[in-house]
Protein 1
Amino acid sequence: MIKGKALVFGLLLLFFGQALAQESIPLWEGYHVPHGKQVTLTPYLADSNEMGLAIIVCPGGSYFWLDEKTEGDGVAQWLQKNGISAFVLRYRAAGFGAFFWHHRAIFRGKQYPDMLIDAQRALQWVREHAEEYKIDPNKVGMMGFSAGGHLVMSAACFNETNFLKENGIDTEASLCPAFVAPIYPVVTMHEPYVHKRSRRALLGEKQQHNPTMIDSLSLEQHIPTDCPPVFLINCADDPVVDYHNSILLDSALTVNNISHQYIRYYTGGHGFGASEEKGTPECRAWKNEFLNWVRSLSLSKGRHDNN
């Protein structure tokens, strides 16, 4: 009898979890966007979302691939459990083929601005479906990890450039996130702190050493006056992305008087996402710090409304 009840309870939990995680949405269906079929948005809707918060989650992976589990679905499930609706964006990344064979020296493949276009499309989609998802369109933020951190910060820095019009989308929704959380992010494209693999993936073989493109996508040089609030964390022992990337961003945000919180942990490394096993106990404290921060934000209605 007890085993039977346990089985039923387990099945209910499985069903409940599946019900809250909906099927992925193809964001470019019906549009002629190169490689657009791989771009999807997966909702993880919170059962009780009193604040109406929503976060678009952008996994890392050096702009070559996506860490969908640790920095994507795992993060979304954590946010969902904490009363925040999340949407995992699987944006266009250069791919393993581009990493190994450098074929983009001949064929364009996937590179900037494809990733940023996908991020803007996700923001537009979530805001235009806010009523359906029971969220506040003025409280849609973005969280990204590593290269995904560069992507969400790019969405904040270049929010006045509308890439969607060039792809056949006319929208009145704001393309500026309400807040951004770059977690152990790639920030600069300049030596000596650049993460070279991310730069190659983002800019392609032909542009990766172009001084103009390097300047254009070094985010510490492009903080806008209307930059949304920023939650920034990294670890001093990060072996992948030099910790000075976050120092550069923190300094730029400070100089431009942008509301932000920066926490640098001593230990934790890179790639821990919202995991309870990866990283260290010290760096895993970022999750509670973020929840406290985002719940304390004053996101006034209409702050990022273009109407």
Protein 2
Amino acid sequence: MELGSVSFAGKTGIITGAAQGIGKAIAKGFVQMGGKAVIVDINPETAAKTCEELGNAVYYTVDLGNPDEVVRVFQQIVEEQGRVEVLINNAGIVNTSDFDKLTLAEWNRVIAVDLTAVFLTSQVLFRHMEQIGGGRIVNVASIAGKVGGGYLGTTAYAAAKAGVISLTKSIAKAGSSKNIYCNSLCPAYTKTPLVSILTGEKEQKVLEAMSLHRAAAPEEVANGVLFLASDAASFIQGENLNCDGGMLMDG
């Protein structure tokens, strides 16, 4: 068997939350490696600018917290793009309310965007990938899903990301006989707009917990995601990859 390469030549990939941050870095890498990026984001203005910057990219606007809209838009993407080989569920929101102050509305919103939407997008693309002979799904989780929250993105976020890790394994088991791969990646502290409120002592505590003692650049996380989405990861299935600067070092 020949060595695989991280290439997306001739492939189309959907990346959620790709107008900025980690998602944008993923989309940029996907295009640079020969693919067509389908950017899914709630902000059409930012998404349009990103598409213009990347070149071989299009965007669709969707509120991932609205289940009906998620299914409708993703079915539309499949119909209009014709063939989609890669899905990268990157979008997410955080809520930093303490456990005893977290409201049900806050909980429901985070779970809807960070977990339920991943289930729905994956299901639509899973059915499509069955028809085209296979594909790859990569879910961006978080180390918060392993440790139960922490300095940013507490109870609801951690619970949702733990669900994403488990959901990834379920999708992988369902897809193995159909040439559908599903893996996840857990970033730690990454310099993006999502964590812009993490400053001062809180930021220092996070950095001290990481062996590399620095935050990740979005491109460093994107590299791991793109590897899992590529044919180079041909014998990796249902796995979760830490991209955390040596914070956990778990098995």
Protein 3
Amino acid sequence: MLNKLQTIANRFEEINRMLALPEVLADRAQWTKLTKERAELEEIAAAYADYRRTEQEMNAAFAEAEKETGEMRELLSDEGYALKAALAEKETALKILLLPKDKNDERNCTIEIRAGAGGEEAALFAYRLYRMYQGFCERKRFKWEVVDLNETELGGMKEAIVNVEGKGAYKRLKYESGVHRVQRVPETESQGRIHTSTATVAVLPEADEVEVEIKDEDIRVDLFRSSGAGGQKVNKTETAIRITHFPTGIVVTCQDERSQLKNKEKAFRVLRTRLYDYYNGKANSKEAADRKNLVGTGDRSERIRTYNFPQSRITDHRIGLSVHSMEAFLSGDFDEMTDALARADTEARLTASDE
């Protein structure tokens, strides 16, 4: 590890020297490339320089302690051991910085929420999750853009597709993929029995246009009238869009906008995202199986969390963490859970890198 860190430090210093050269300053393309590389290495180089300083201070403290006697020797030894403990913490921090970054972390994302088992109660729970993620995005100042929302007459929803824009949106939401289970007494339950229902969530990183090629001959675009719970929600003209991708069988529908053009743009954006997930998922399936990530595969068939209303408890089964603040959690205040999942993921990857 230290050899790799020294190589990074040497490259960082080399780039700094190159950026001061007149010929580099005159070449905008090369200057931009080097500046980007420097930004990628800067945090690791700075952390390694701090590690080396601490190591030198520790060695100096122990060396001085050997020369002294009595109280001064004891003081210098204590200082050396304190620096040794700090050095161990900085070594762990460096290992984390060297872990491969998820290339999708800083991307926008698409959230897909669908009611599962449980009839209308599942539809009501799915809508609570929809509002939960909307509240979370408002807190983070992420842009929330509805692509499709299929509501029920009783205030629930069968399905929702939403695009989320903001730096690190995927990083903050990626651990939400999976089956969410709710345990509560429905309002229509006269005998007070607890019912169990589910909803599925999929969080997909958004793809750039250049990353996914969509050929005209591979798709069919259909126009139809929007549908909804009734009343003003129903659009009388054919502005809704359905895109079918023949090679994968993926179908995307967008009917949230009154403009046919806007619906088409949103639908193609979601199609690119799903295709990106489809092809990357196939390529990474073996790696995911080998790694056995502690916080799960993120597959939408995996039960990840239970929302127990009678006990006001939310339990994430991947890390065994329970929190007791149902209303705050469902309003979008679930950073504690997200942070814990991210830490567990990092610890699992650290363990795997040491094996």
Protein 4
Amino acid sequence: MDFRLLNAQLLPQAADLWDYCFEKKGDPFFEWYFKEYCLKQNSIIGGFDGDKLACMLHLNPYAITLRGQQVRLPYIVGVATAPEYRGQHLTRPLLETAFTVLRAQGAAFALLMPINPAIYTPYGFSYCYYRHYYKLPLTELKHLPPVQNVKLVRYADITEGLAAADAVYTACGQELNGMAVRSKAKWQELLRGYAAEKVMLAAAMQNDRPVGYMLYSIAGGTFKVQEMLTLNNEAQTALLRYAAGHLSDAETLEWLAEPGNMAHLNFAGADYCGSVRPFMMARCINIRKALELLPVPQGTEGEATLLITDKFLPLNNGLLKIKAAGGVLTHASTMDDEDVVMDVAAFTQLVFGTFSFDELVRAAKIKVNNPHQSGFLRSLFSTQRNYINEYY
């Protein structure tokens, strides 16, 4: 099996495999993705049996705000194997090739939304994003208190709501970590894709200023919130009451809200408080590069020796002394005894701030040999509220 990057001549094979495994030819997303996006904005790695594509993954370029820093990283999508090649364990060499390419390109991390997380945990991926999932009758939202100072605007052409949505999205980025950076071009691309799938957009305005937006669709009796962000409770309540106004079109609300969402405090039914669901995985590709990107919180100083293990990517294995002084973090190989031991999955979750240092210790994902260094690491790896809502 030969693993390599695809060129334009091989793209039809990738389209055929996508058609077999995911959206079908003729689907609006399929047509846009293979006509406008593939090999123009992304790259594809494939495993070939002679000239035949046996498996593939797509590396879609993204930038996220990680602890206040913009970080470029790939979003791995379209991981697929032709049915006649399944059971041959092709995922491993496919990911090995991808990681080699990504390290050469200078990537520190990769994102991935798994259909089955058990496929990817052996390769060092771990959940770094969680969401609050709601599913409840639309009638429940009728009990929410009315909001007097919020005006709702529905955009017949959702691309006309770009400025309002972007203003709210950008403001929410001041509190939420790990959000995808959306340029105007990225917003236009996103909204055109949503429009092709008959997604609609409503915005909440307060004193002529956008304070919330909701991208939604209605099908099969379900009012599905594709994305909703708000700057205050009044905007969120107004948009949920807007959803409740669709009782003639739907019976049920589905919504993957941001982590820590508290809308359930206003729901009368105890069964409708929702649940926390894992959403997206991440993986550190280059630990030293990740440490170089890590900002040092004000007033944080200290040092610790980390033993980080990576069974799948040996280049990441190492004993590193990290030191924070004067707002700068340095790292160097060392022969000192390790203060803390963790694998690459726990390290990734620490950098993303998904869990605190102490939470990972309690979960036996981190072993502490020298408790005196724990305070430094708690400060360096503070927890964050991670949010992302990208699907390709």
